[in-house]
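ugh ok so i messed up the first submission bc i forgot one of the chains. this is the corrected input, ALL of the components this time, i swear. 1175 residues overall. if the numbers dont match what u have on ur side tell me asap before i send this to the collaborators (the ones from the other lab, u know who)
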Amino acid sequence: MATAEFRRKYFDYAPDHNYLTHSRGFWSWALTLDHKRIGVMYLVGVSAALFLAGVFALVLRSELFTPGKMFLTEAQYNQMFTLHGAIMVFAFIIPSVPAALGNFVLPMMLGAKDVAFPRLNLCSFYLWVFGTLFLLIAMLTSGLDTGWTFYTPYSIRTQTSVIFATGGAFILGFSSIFTGLNFLVTVNTMRPPGMGWFHMPLFLWALYSTSIIQILATPVLGITLLLVIAERTLHIGIFDPAYGGDPVLFQHFFWFYSHPAVYIMILPAMGVISELIAVHSRKEIFGYKFIAFSSVAIAFLGFLVWGHHMFTSGQSQVMTMIFSAITFTVAIPSAVKVFNWLATMYKGSVALTTPMCYGLSFIFLFGIGGLTGLFLGTLSTDIHLHDTYFVVAHFHFVMVGGTLTALLGGMFHWWPKMFGRMYNETWGRIGCFLVFSGFNLTFFPQFVMGSRGMPRRYARYDQEFQIFHQLSTIGAFVLGIGILIAYVTLIYAIFKGKRVAGNPWGGASLEWQSSSPPSFHNFDHKIAINDPYDFSSQGLDPELDTFVSRHFLEPSEQPVREKESV
Amino acid sequence: MSVTESATTTHDSEHGHGDHAAHGEFIAHHFDSPQQQFDSGKLGIWLFLVTEILFFSGLFCAYTLYRAHHPEIFVQASLFLDKVLGGINTIVLLFSSLTMALAVRSSQLAENRKVTWYLTLTMVCAALFLGIKAVEYSHKWDEGIFVRAYFNFHEHAGPPSISPYLVAISIPFAICLIASLAGAIGARLTGKAKLSLFLFCVAIMFGGYFLGAIGGKVYMNAKSAGEQKALAGVHMEGEPAADEPTQGDAGTHAADQHAAQEPSAAEE
Amino acid sequence: MNPLLLLLAQDDIPKAPPYQPGSYFFPVQASSFAAEIDWLYYFIYWVCVVFFALIIGVMVYFVIKYRRRDGVDPEPSHSHNTTLEIAWSVIPSLLLILMFKWGAEGYFNQRIPYDDAEQIRVKAQQFSWLFEYEDGDFSNVLHLTRGKAYEFRMESKDVLHSFFVPAFRQKMDIVPGRYTTLWIKPTVAGEFRVYCAEYCGDNHSNMKTNCVVHETEAERKQATAWDWVGKGMSEQGRVENGQRLFVVRCSGCHSVSGKRMTGPNLDGKYGTQEQLEGAGPVLIDDNYIVESIKEPQKKIVASYGPPNQKMQSFLGELNDEQIDWIISYLKSLSPAASAAQ
Ligand code: HEA
Ligand code: HEA
Ligand code: CUA
Ligand SMILES: [Cu+2]
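and heres the new structure output, hopefully the right one now
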């Protein structure tokens, strides 16, 4: 069976027999149930959200170039950072890695044809569209100026479109819940025979843990936002002291979701990094079980620390202490991951491809972001640092330096699989370098001004912070250009890139065992189920210039479990 | 679940993957075995229930805190609730979960007629529940008890025996009832027996609503008539209402006090 | 005229005092616990630097040492090592326990009252500060004495605010509907910046003021003292009293320089006609001003409503005599109108 002909048939670049060319026309995309197309649509959607909110970021950074007024009034500035934060968080980063990359990759990693509930999957996507539309309506009507946190009582009283915005976030929450539910079921029931829990790629472990958080935490956000809407319209008196409510209660509700949500943002990104580092070092991942369990541990502990956003809010001092203590426990599983990634490279064969460059920047930037989390988890220092630019820098290091970097890395990594074309390595690296250096220039000075006392959400600031703000503004533009170059490189590759067959990197997880781009049913042939990190299981097929499971190269060599796929 | 998901099969068979016929019609193209499909559906629905629980746990949490902060509001508000209607509704809901479980069981035993009737009974219970709720809600609205922003409680004026709110809520149900009944008869006449049976069941279901609404309203009217009579008795004897021993539930008592004290104060 | 009034730019936030640097990451340590917090910060900082340097060092070394070379396959090595895993979980844990412990200790220093503290009431509202002292004086620039302990009892009229003085390393949210407290013992004399650190609406970033720490209690008293009785007598005294009240209580929202702030400019308004929201024009006279102060929602100036919550009633906060002084002051800003009388 494993003839060169077979390999050509199933692994070669497949221009006219793949999910992209399977059917044509608008409706074939808009009504598709194919997880790969849904993944691609998500990717387009979240990228649009990133650009929109990124432009807001550039506008607000420009305003901060001088301490006084440049071109925005205070009220306009407040709208800028609110829309920036809300769109970035709800419409971009939460769906970014799981819903866009995860949708594409997860069923293929399982050797499956689709997720468990394809219709629900499409429904999630449309909920994302509607939720984002609501945010846009809020933006186009009277805007939003509450901060992305919607703190009451201000959000009850302001005249801006809080109802549309919270409604949008509510809908986006359900999109996220359904994606999580879908993935959880898929991983639970659709693993191929022979793939035990500990034979799954780590990306799946990460998505699995993320799904647990999405299912358990997001409903609470949903009800909280509904209560805000009810408070605004009916004055039921839960969150606004003017009606007998308690604003601190809102903060508890909000962070009960939003702290776990930051792990919704970072866990899938960590999963991507586990893949990138292992594949591009051609080295079995170090400490598989520790990485797998640390994802679950982070997911679990993440539920117990929400109060660290409220150290100064007036919650009781005992609770404050407990929350601080638990906050530190989350640092350990994160540290375990970082150390294991490093150990993976040991005696490996490290290629500085673009995905790997993003992987290494991730370790650098997330390291700083995570470590600065320790300053914030420590009680007495957080009293000083809370609501200053130190916090702003912290979360951009983890969200932009962490998640956005991992998203870009993952896009470069799986791009050949998604579109069967290789991007330009030189431009890829230039983009990565600009993102990395621009990012540091933007957000490093913010640590300094933060601990010197620059409060966040300030349209006007005191003279002494100007130099830091100016560095930061310049950095933001460099960062923006870097992101732009990365995207241009990728889009150019779709049309003009070099054609590649199934497995250019030599990855051993199952998604690499399809043609590139994958066919409509992902696999039209039997797949050989091997350890996802046993890279020696893949051998180079000189004719196709791609890696192929040795099972298909020299079938007699080793016994491999197969999955019937057609 | 398995039924819903099977729809994908059509999608698949369009592309002529002949071997799927072997799996049977009901299994979706992306599942390997009926077992896998069943497990997925089951796990999926359980997880969905988990999200629902969490969704409402936010409300419960808010409720608990609110109640701890303002116990007096809850005492006051409970005076306006009716135990009989609430009790009936609880039983109706519990009973409907029994009939639903029986329906599932019957379908597993392939007793299709029973499935039909158990499902109908379940839906009737649902509609009955809505009917009673409609009475309870409209009764409060009649008295001007709305959420805070629209709160407009006017002292015990004696709610109208035919409530405009109740009528408004009932109109869509009435339309549905008539339409389904008419449809059932029409289908009967044109010889579509299955459709006729289905629409007939639907009609019975909407009938359940009116059973609840009318029954509940008659009960409420009788109750307030009783209150009026008790009040009238008080006036004849010229006694201050506060001394009147409580009859019926506490809600009427509170209302009595208010309504009764004012006239007696005027007399002095 | 009292020099205090000239010191304040009347319709603007107090000018920022010059930045007083401490160590690289911090301003000067001006409170009793500042040094301790900075120390802990630098402890965490160096722990992080060491770990980070190690991680990046190892990373760069591996990338160079094990870079991909043609024909060289990766060498086999163990894919797990439990001892190593435990070591790199436990060592950071120990450091984390230290951070937690010292952090909690420092926190209690920031939050536990001093026995002999003098109480200061802080009233925050969009977008101004009001400080009331035990001796009955009040101001909207905070005046303290070096070496003396203070308890701040804080309340908000409208939304969340947060009292933040970087030089003191102290911060606490101000929550409407309840009191929050914090303690400070300044150790350095000078002038420091006070920020509102919790987002509170349009002018959140302008809700800044200063804190002046005096060497002696006498200086502090002098800075906030105001001789109401003596000045209340003459018209001139009434105007000055009114101006002082206006600066402290009203200038957060009303300018007297023509600038539109949260509320309308009040310079030269007395005796003119004002266009109301949804109603005809109205003459700004004594009665209108009294009404505006006591029941601001009754007549809303055009383009200022709704939202309706912006100006809160001062009923119960300003007595009739004080309102009278304010009227005198507003009148004095319209020479034409006062001359006409
Ligand atoms: C992707 C998102 C993300 C992630 C992963 C994290 C991770 C962490 N965050 Fe962060 N955080 C945010 C997003 C995120 N955060 C956001 C958005 C806010 C602000 C929201 C707002 O107010 O608008 C915030 C705010 C925030 C606060 C509140 C600050 C304040 O407002 O006063 C705190 C306080 O404890 C905190 C702590 C932490 C900690 C301890 C971690 C830990 O999980 C970090 C663990 C990682 C490491 C420790 C680094 C890796 C390990 C090593 C390099 C090895 C060496 C390790 C040791 C020596 C221990 N974060
Ligand atoms: C995923 C989350 C995410 C991401 C990716 C970003 C990305 C960025 N953020 Fe954002 N940010 C938040 C989440 C995020 N942010 C949140 C939650 C807040 C808090 C809001 C609140 O307080 O309520 C916040 C607040 C915040 C502030 C603080 C505002 C304040 O408190 O006053 C600042 C200030 O510098 C800032 C800057 C930036 C910059 C420069 C980027 C850059 O990384 C953006 C880079 C992207 C682009 C630039 C767009 C892509 C490129 C182009 C469109 C090409 C054109 C560009 C050129 C030619 C230059 N952000
Ligand atoms: Cu007050 Cu911000
Ligand atoms: Cu957090």
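quick check: Residues A 259, 262, 308-309 surround copper (II) ion (ligand 4) (CB under 6 Å). that seems consistent at least. Residues 34-65 of chain C form the longest helix (32 residues).
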